[in-house]
Amino acid sequence: MTAATIALPQGWIAPKRAIAASGVRGGGSEFQLVCGVGTYELDLLVRDFHEVFELMGQVTEGESIYAPVRGLPVQLVDADGNPIGELGSTNEFGEFESKADERGLIGLRLGTGEDAPCVLVRGESQ
Q: I need a labelling partner for 67 at 20 to 30 A (CA). Which of 1, 5, 87, 93 fits?
């Protein structure tokens, strides 16, 4: 099932995978997502190893990809918008890491509140 066939929660962004990595061991998958999210640009490496789901990314200003967004809250959420794991934030370079052991639809919320942009990072069968 691809992002195009999944019924996404309203307001979620479904980017296309930019790069499929090769040589990933353990039967998991690794891919990169790069997309505009509101006023930000998101560059995200996703590692899905079935039991553990890891993200490493960077958020920059949409007008200048060389300007990191510092201190931006980032949160994994389920399809109902419920938080998964702990709330994190970007560091001085706009970078962050997160992981979860949840299955199903998972989004990455950039910012706080229900109106904060959310990006699909894991679909049902990914």
A: 87
Give 49-78 pLDDT, tens digit per residue: 877 889 999 999 988 878 999 999 999 999
- The pTM score is 0.80
Instruction: Return the closest-CA partner of residue 9 out of 112, 110, 81.
Output: 81
Q: How many domains does the chain have?
A: 1
- Is residue 46 situated within a structural domain? yes
Here the CATH number for the domain that contains residue 33 is: 2.60.40
Number of C-beta neighbours around residue 17 at 10 A: 14
- Asked if 117 contacts 109 with a C-beta cutoff of 8 angstroms, the reply is yes
For residue range 36-51, list pLDDT tens digits in order: 888 999 999 988 887 7
Cα→Cα distances 3→6, 34, 73, 91, 122, Å: 5, 15, 24, 29, 9
Residue 25 lies in a domain: yes
